[in-house]
Amino acid sequence: MTPPRPLPMGPGAPWLAPLAGYSDLAFRLLCREYGAAVCCTEMVSAKGLVYGSPGTREYLATLEAEAPVVLQLFGPESKFMLPALDLCLSKGFEWFDINAGCPVPKVVKTGCGAALVRDEDGRSRLLQMVRDMARQLGPGRLGVKYRLGWTTGDDVAVELACRLEEAGAGWITLHPRHATQGYGGQARWEAIGRVVQAVSIPVLASGDLFQPEDGVRCLEQTGAAGVMFARGALKNPGIFEGFRRLAGTSALPDVPLPHDSPQALAACIRRHASLAREHASSPAQFFRMRGFIPRYVKRLPEGGTLRRRLTLCKNWEELETIAAVIDALPAMEPVEPVEPVDLAEYMP
């Protein structure tokens, strides 16, 4: 079998992070249209796939139009991850990521997510999964997303990065917070820089990337191979092309971005709704889609009123009515343009 081409990384290749409850097919397609070079699926339970849990296989929905896509799996050990990997390979997926960072208690208590960095037992299980999966996949097709460690003072980021590289990981993504922090406090970007210096495989940066400018600053400070946007993308799917413009690697120079004007934002909402309706697997898709829009409109002067209307929105027609209200809003104050930055000197 011909190995897949390498995944794009670098200043011209921002990624969408795996976002539980959000990075479904519709949102991934939307982010690709706004410049994301690679999108990750929501985290998918290896046990759920192996045991055929209701709804789990719905997470495997994909289209050729979103390639390349990285499927993120979570599980406690190889005996679940390997058969799940076989199933996903049979569905056409080529790149995979192991979740070793989710701090949610219901995930951690099963020995998954951030439990894999909590102690040596967890780290040993993680490393064995990497060895087994990398052996099956071949080089460059498996990544790991992990955290600094379990709690303050427990910083295993560099040591674990070296062990992951030795085990066969093709790339790693560091969210530089401890598991017990959840998403509070400040991401420690300097830890990403230390990991970059310690390994030869690509390191992707994650954490506190809320604006396009944050991505540029993070690359400048860390020398990471690329950035992975998470919460920033939930507020503004145009963050990917915004970042690329600042990095001098624009792919869509003439495309209006959602934060450019109310009209561009209305177009984004309509496009997201269209993709969600086209690829909906259940009536619940509308309510999932409705969860995005309050974040989109937050920066509008009328954002508070619009968010309240959105929480009461019951169907696609009402959502279109709100989009029409946004479309009719006057232009916002223009954002002062930022000069593109040459990031070549900061790259490893």
UniProtKB/TrEMBL annotation:
GO terms for molecular function: flavin adenine dinucleotide binding; tRNA binding; tRNA dihydrouridine synthase activity. Keywords: Flavoprotein, FMN, NADP, Nucleotide-binding, Oxidoreductase, RNA-binding, tRNA processing, tRNA-binding. CDD domains: DUS_like_FMN. FMN binds at Q72, K145, H175, A230, R231. The keyword Methyltransferase does not apply. Its cofactor is FMN. The active site is at C102. It catalyses: a 5,6-dihydrouridine in tRNA + NAD(+) = a uridine in tRNA + NADH + H(+); a 5,6-dihydrouridine in tRNA + NADP(+) = a uridine in tRNA + NADPH + H(+). InterPro entries: Aldolase_TIM, DUS-like_FMN-bd, DUS_fam, tRNA-dHydroUridine_Synthase_C. Catalyzes the synthesis of 5,6-dihydrouridine (D), a modified base found in the D-loop of most tRNAs, via the reduction of the C5-C6 double bond in target uridines. Belongs to the dus family. This is tRNA-dihydrouridine synthase.
